[in-house]
């Protein structure tokens, strides 16, 4: 086993899901070495996801739209800090540059070769390349030589009291009273072929809301407000007595996570907000289309379930996502019926 750690830096620049999934590593590292200073280097737009983590000492931010000069400056900061260990769980050109010259660096094994064979040739060789654990477990693999193991606690995020106060004020102003539970919906994704059709989210959420007498909360970014608005209109049209609140673009990431605490269940695509819901321990139904379990992003908690269309010869067609289905038929999503999602949510709402 390697020596005791006193000062450690974790590098994970982006994105929402990846940063959230790093939290078990942070917690396990602090649990094994409680006196170790743990710093975290992340893009500024995701800094709040780690800023309030009690196990993190300092957050180092890579600025939005950062330049080469910013990268050079950050590398000088990293090297001058003399970390015992740098844990690079991003493994990109930038993260490798930032950690170059450090005394000790450990990196995540992304199983890139196995992933490439699975996407391009549909050959599953993961067993020969270290198996296919979830991403949080892959991050923890980087520190097993230091006696650090998964505590089984899953991902987590933290926020200060003023975030909860702001969320409660907003929900109250929209007539969602204190203690009222809701159906949460995250219908968008960065990549088009990872999005289950919006009308199916509307049908699923509308039926669940009517059956259980719950309002619906729609989550997303500012650029997703229009799509969430279309889903809101569809639910209102089919279920006029159901209250629907479109929160897209109105909440920060931490506020979104806090608002999810008011959800009896969250319906989501394979996206960062899905991991945010899991980190809050909210019952979750995740719809996976072009991506598969081997890539490591399936939620792993007992309060989560995945709905997918197995058995398609074209799946997976990507590990990140594409603007549209490369074959044009989009069967991996279109052949998932609302009933499957409704049934998945029903086990949590019973």
Task: Annotate the secondary structure layout.
Blueprint: E1 7-11, H1 16-21, H2 23-32, E2 37-43, H3 48-51, E3 58-62, H4 68-80, E4 85-88, H5 93-99, E5 105-107, H6 112-121, H7 135-141, H8 161-173, E6 182-186, H9 198-212, E7 216-218, H10 225-238, E8 244-246, H11 253-260, E9 263-269, H12 272-279, E10 284-288, E11 304-308, H13 331-334, H14 338-349
Parallel strand pairs: 1-2, 1-4, 2-3, 4-5, 6-7, 6-9, 7-8, 9-10, 10-11
Helix pairs in contact: 2-7, 4-5, 8-11, 9-10, 9-14, 11-12
Structure description:
The protein is of the alpha/beta class and 350 residues long. 37% of the residues lie in helices and 15% in strands. The chain has helices at residues 16-21, 23-32, 48-51, 68-80, 93-99, 112-121, 135-141, 161-173, 198-212, 225-238, 253-260, 272-279, 331-334, 338-349, and strands at 7-11, 37-43, 58-62, 85-88, 105-107, 182-186, 216-218, 244-246, 263-269, 284-288, 304-308. Strands 8-7-6-9-10-11 form a 6-stranded parallel beta sheet, sandwiched between helices. It has a 5-stranded parallel beta sheet with strand order 3-2-1-4-5, with helices on both faces. Helix 2 (23-32) runs parallel beside helix 7 (135-141) and helix 4 runs parallel beside helix 5. It is globular and about 60 Å long. It starts with 6 loop residues before the first strand and ends with a helix. The mean pLDDT is 96.
């Amino acid at each position: 086993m390697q020596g005791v750690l006193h000062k450690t830096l974790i590098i994970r620049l982006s994105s929402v899901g990846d940063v959230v999934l790093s939290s078990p590593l942070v917690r396990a590292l602090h649990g094994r070495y409680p006196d170790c200073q743990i710093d975290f280097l992340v893009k500024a737009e995701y800094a709040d996801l780690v800023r309030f983590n009690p196990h993190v000492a300092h957050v180092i931010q890579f600025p939005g739209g950062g330049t080469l000069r910013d990268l050079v400056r950050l590398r000088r900061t990293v090297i001058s800090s003399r970390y015992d260990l740098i844990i690079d769980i991003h493994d990109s050109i930038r993260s490798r540059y930032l950690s170059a010259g450090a005394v000790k660096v450990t990196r995540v094994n992304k199983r890139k070769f196995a992933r490439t064979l699975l996407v391009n040739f549909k050959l599953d060789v993961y067993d020969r390349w270290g198996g296919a654990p979830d991403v949080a477990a892959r991050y923890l693999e980087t520190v097993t030589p230091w006696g650090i193991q998964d505590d089984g606690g899953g991902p987590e995020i933290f926020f200060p009291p003023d975030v909860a106060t702001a969320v409660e004020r907003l929900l109250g102003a929209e007539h969602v009273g204190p203690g009222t539970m809701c159906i949460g919906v995250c219908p968008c994704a960065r990549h088009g072929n990872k999005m289950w059709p919006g009308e199916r989210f509307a049908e699923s959420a509308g039926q669940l809301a009517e059956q259980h007498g719950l309002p619906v909360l729609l989550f997303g970014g500012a650029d997703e407000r229009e799509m969430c608005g279309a889903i809101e209109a569809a639910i209102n049209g089919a279920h006029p007595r159901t209250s629907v609140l479109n929160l897209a673009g109105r909440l920060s990431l931490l506020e979104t996570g806090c608002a999810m605490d008011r959800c009896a269940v969250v319906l989501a695509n394979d996206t960062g907000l899905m991991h945010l819901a899991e980190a809050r321990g909210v019952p979750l139904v995740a719809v996976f289309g072009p991506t598969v379990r081997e890539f490591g992003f399936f939620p792993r908690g007992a309060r989560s379930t995945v709905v997918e269309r197995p058995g398609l010869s074209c799946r997976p067609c990507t590990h990140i996502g594409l603007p549209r289905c490369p074959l044009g038929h989009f069967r991996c999503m279109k052949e998932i019926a609302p009933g499957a999602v409704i049934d998945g949510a029903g086990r949590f709402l019973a």
